[in-house]
């Protein structure tokens, strides 16, 4: 019996060692492949930090630190230059949405706490990761969207159909506004007005001080994911494949443009052009006044990432695992960078660095690479 146990231990050890060696070799080969395929790209990998998020939480860069949440219930603070973790904050829920950072405080909500924990909005000290206050949004089983902070107030939507306005300093409720559906997009606040979409198929404009409705526009299909952009007009995408431009004062439709797929990408408006991705695999550039197509760029999969324009280059990600850099005027590809997973987070460009999340890439059913937070340095030309 003893000899049998010893033999079994030896066999188990050999198998474990072989699996470990195989995994290391796979990782080495994958790293070499990633470096080889990106060798002629005018950016270089500064660092890559492995987290537990699937790429939906968009990183926020503030005062030399990158903040991002994940589905393992952590909020991370990572040094933007070295990629080293400074601290992480744990809560018993997915920190699935993107945080907001204002005046040294991080505001973040929960995305489905499960059947036991309340859905809350949290304020966390950016220096040490300690909780400053927590505000209950809804009962267990609910989810919140990403918060927006403006003029001392935190605005956040929830799956209980309410938009909440919470005092940023004290965590006390100022007002709440009820719609007919869940609100999981990030509100946009401009000139004292809050703009947001609801799953009741409507885009809303609410007075930021009083919580009273100024107008609403019915789209005809739910608007849960694509947050509006405001630049003379209100621009927003919808699950019915359309991009809308709405009059900022009256809430009347100015124009509509139809794509070939659902839109959860947020629009970005720069220089009279609206950039937005669609699940038909295209990034679109539309004239902001007329809605006419200027150009569109095809990728190998859905474009859920929100584009970022810097130095006349539009950066965005695709579910085909590439980060793309496209010429702002022509829509011609300048370069693309291969990552280890789908890119659905918004792109952040700060001080010649590009930050974004790349989701886990699964192989053989259960094993996966990542997910990762990337920092790419744009090479000097």
TrEMBL record:
Coiled coil regions in record: none
Q: Identify the SUPFAM superfamilies for this entry.
A: Quinoprotein alcohol dehydrogenase-like
Cited Pfam families = PQQ_2
Q: Known InterPro entries for this protein?
A: PQQ_b-propeller_rpt (IPR018391), PQQ_rpt_dom (IPR002372), Quinoprotein_ADH-like_sf (IPR011047), WD40/YVTN_repeat-like_dom_sf (IPR015943)
**Residues spanning the membrane:** 12-33
The residues covered by the Pyrrolo-quinoline quinone repeat domain are 121-256
Keyword annotations for this protein? Answer: Membrane, Transmembrane, Transmembrane helix
Q: By what name is this protein known? A: PQQ-binding-like beta-propeller repeat protein
Species this chain originates from: Candidatus Zymogenus saltonus
């Amino acid at each position: 019996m003893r000899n049998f146990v010893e033999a079994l231990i030896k066999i188990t050890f050999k198998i474990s060692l072989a699996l470990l060696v195989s995994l290391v070799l796979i990782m080495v080969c994958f790293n070499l492949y990633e470096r080889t395929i990106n060798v002629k790209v005018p950016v270089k990998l500064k660092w890559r930090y492995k987290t537990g998020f699937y790429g939906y939480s968009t990183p926020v860069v503030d005062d030399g630190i990158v903040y991002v949440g994940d589905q393992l219930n952590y909020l991370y603070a990572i040094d933007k230059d070295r990629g080293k973790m400074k601290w992480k904050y744990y809560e018993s829920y997915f920190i699935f949405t993107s945080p907001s950072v204002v005046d040294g405080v991080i505001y973040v909500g929960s995305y489905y706490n499960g059947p036991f924990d309340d859905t809350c909005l949290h304020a966390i000290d950016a220096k040490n990761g300690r909780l400053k206050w927590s505000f209950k949004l809804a009962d267990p089983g609910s989810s919140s969207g990403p918060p927006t902070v403006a003029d001392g107030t935190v605005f956040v939507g929830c799956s209980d159909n309410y938009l909440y306005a919470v005092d940023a300093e004290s965590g006390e409720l100022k007002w709440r506004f009820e719609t007919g559906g869940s609100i999981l997009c990030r509100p946009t606040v401009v000139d004292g007005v809050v703009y947001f979409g609801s799953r009741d198929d409507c885009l809303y404009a609410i007075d930021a001080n009083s919580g009273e409705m100024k107008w609403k526009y019915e789209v005809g299909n739910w608007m849960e994911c694509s947050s509006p952009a405001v630049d003379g007009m209100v621009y927003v995408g919808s699950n019915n494949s359309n991009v809308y431009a709405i009059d900022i004062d009256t809430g009347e439709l100015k124009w509509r443009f139809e794509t070939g797929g659902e839109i959860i990408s947020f629009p970005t408006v720069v220089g009279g052009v609206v950039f937005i991705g669609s699940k038909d695999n295209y990034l679109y550039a539309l004239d902001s006044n007329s809605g006419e197509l200027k150009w569109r760029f095809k990728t190998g999969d859905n474009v859920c990432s929100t584009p970022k324009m810097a130095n006349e280059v539009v950066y965005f990600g695709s579910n085909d695992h590439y980060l793309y850099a496209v010429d702002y005027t022509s829509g011609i590809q300048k370069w693309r960078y291969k990552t280890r997973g789908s890119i659905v987070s918004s792109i952040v460009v700060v001080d010649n660095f590009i930050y974004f999340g790349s989701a886990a890439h699964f192989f053989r059913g259960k094993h996966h690479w990542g997910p990762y937070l990337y920092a790419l340095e744009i090479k000097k030309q």
